[in-house]
Amino acid sequence: MTAQRTTAAGGMETAFGFRKVGEGEKQGLVNDVFSRVAERYDLMNDLMSGGLHRLWKDAMVAWLAPSRRPGFKALDVAGGTGDIAFRIVEASGYQAQVTVLDINGSMLAVGRERAIRRGLEGNLTFVEANAEDLPFPDSSFDAYTIAFGIRNVPHIDTALSEAFRVLRPGGRFLCLEFSDVDMPILDRIYEAWSFQVIPRIGKMVAGDDEPYRYLVESIRKFPNQENFAAMIRRAGFARVTWRDYSGGIAAAHSGWKI
Ligand SMILES: C[S@@+](CC[C@H](N)C(=O)[O-])C[C@H]1O[C@@H](n2cnc3c(N)ncnc32)[C@H](O)[C@@H]1O
Q1: Is tRNA processing given among the entry's keywords (predicted)?
Q2: CATH no. of 5-181+214-256
Q3: Beta bridge partner(s), residue 250
Q4: For the chain, what are the domain ranges?
Q5: Residue 229 and residue 167: Cα distance in Å, rounded?
Q6: Among 40, 44, 76, 142, which residue's CB has the most CB atoms within a 10 Å radius?
Q7: What is the structure's pLDDT at 217?
């Protein structure tokens, strides 16, 4: 679970990777991480995951199976440089309208350029906003997706309630996130890769290891599959299930607003 404690000053504390920070501090620190990595984000994703993130994203969008009817509306929260939104548009036969929402303008700027290069800008809208306070009316979207984003959000319960609010009845929630590895040998290899190799790749390729330490630490602090499913249910979603990818290194959670 996302444990919270009280600071000496009486405010709430939350996890920023392995550090405890004041609740109000976390978002600023997260924004700094993604502003620092934005330009190298896509390259680093390939290097850090050995390309696996592409397969996990393909699998989540295949599970979503976006409608090919014109007017299908999806919201991709923490959408960053656009990977999920591009896949939804392609899987819908270029019918879907996808809103890419992210709190970080640098990540969105990279996403916008990539969308133009792919000729997808007609299907996409980019919105700079917070997952905890979505600037949309109730029941606006057929689908809500969030990939590798929710563990960065300071108040996960608030983001989940917002997801529920903006989905139409019958709408689908899908979240892709790093999760709990269920095989001890794989877990040991994964731990060594995460803590020994990834920060070094960050230093070599992006000239900075600190953001990558946060990214791997934050993965370890995120609730496991079971506990995260319980949080999704508490937000009001029904038929909550998940699929593990690569032995649980990543997992996609699905829920429905009924
Ligand atoms: C690891 S990236 C994931 C990007 C993309 N979804 C992907 O899978 O490649 C995490 C993203 O979450 C965004 N983010 C962090 N906190 C957020 C918040 N409160 N609201 C919206 N986006 C947020 C960051 O700016 C960053 O772009």
Answers
A1: no
A2: 3.40.50.150
A3: 178, 245
A4: 5-181+214-256
A5: 18
A6: 76
A7: 87
